Amino acid sequence: MTRRVAYQTAATLCVALALSGCAFNFIGDVERPSWREQAEAACMARHPDSPFLVQASEINGKGSCGITHPLKVSAFADGSIAADPTATLGCPIVEAVGEWLRGAVQPAAMAWFGQPVVAIRQIDDYTCRTRNSVHGAKLSEHAFGNALDVAGFILEDGRTVLVRTGWRGAKDEQGFLREVEAAACQRFSTVLGPGARYHGDHFHLDLAKRSSSGSSYCNPKPQVVPPDRPPYNPERIATPIPPDSPLYTGSIHAGGVKAVHAAPALSLSD
């Protein structure tokens, strides 16, 4: 109630000062939709405590920004794929990203590169902002910890496959990135990548709730996996990484993995 009154007071003041220029920049609705907290709570109930998912204090940002049950994520997929750097997210997107990495990204990596992914490079997790940071636009799912931007994948031998260079790069990188993007389109509500404005260097993944059930948006549209895709050897799988591994220090440099260079500049993305 206090936040609603404060918002209305500020809005009235902004109108009164319109001729002299208003400095207020409103973000989001006054109240966070109840379905978000319900989805978080249901997800949290499904998952036991994990050294890779550390619960943090509730986040209440400007307007309706925030996460009721935020998690500090150092690794996904039961600890087999590190997050670089550690991400702050809500439970539902953590669960969905883990399923995508385990069920689609790893098989694709084994097929195209003959080795597993050991980490992903993420460039945007929870951020209280509008879509593409455009003034007056709707809030991004990032504002609720319900989205993740993935800029690259780090393989076991240290090779880094970046969306920015790999989308039109080496044949195996093109095949891998198109395969994992197509798989993401089957798992997330929104998937944006190269070809979508502001998304030339990463995949944006979110679980936005749309008006019609089951509806989703994917740009670019998924492409058919090339017929010359190498076979996948299911016998080799990634195993959990010890919690004290340098993989979770934010600078990956151990276990055969080369140092991760600074992430590319953050794009103003959805």
Short description:
The chain has helices at residues 2-16, 34-46, 91-113, 163-166, 171-185; strands spanning 53-55, 59-60, 66-67, 71-76, 81-89, 117-124, 147-155, 160-162, 190-192, 203-206, 217-219. It is α+β, with helices and mostly antiparallel strands and 270 residues long. The chain is globular.
What would your notes on this structure say?
The protein has 270 residues and is α+β, with helices and mostly antiparallel strands. The chain has two domains: 1-31, no CATH class; 32-248, no CATH class. It has five helices and eleven strands, in the order H-H-E-E-E-E-E-H-E-E-E-H-H-E-E-E. It has helices spanning 2-16, 34-46, 91-113, 163-166, 171-185, and strands at residues 53-55, 59-60, 66-67, 71-76, 81-89, 117-124, 147-155, 160-162, 190-192, 203-206, 217-219. The strands form two sheets. Strands 1, 4, 5, 6, 7, 8, 9, 10 and 11 form a nine-stranded mixed β-sheet that branches. The longest helix has 23 residues, at 91-113. The chain is globular and about 50 Å long.
Please describe the structure with a list of short key phrases separated by commas or semicolons:
alpha+beta, 19% strand, 2 domains, 26% helix, 270 residues, disordered C terminus, disordered N terminus, two-stranded antiparallel ribbon, 9-stranded mixed sheet
Break the fold down into its secondary structure elements and pairings.
Elements lengths: L1 H15 L17 H13 L6 E3 L3 E2 L5 E2 L3 E6 L4 E9 L1 H23 L3 E8 L22 E9 L4 E3 H4 L4 H15 L4 E3 L10 E4 L10 E3 L51
Parallel strand pairs: 5-6, 9-11
Antiparallel strand pairs: 1-4, 2-3, 4-5, 6-7, 7-8, 7-10, 9-10
Helix pairs in contact: 3-5
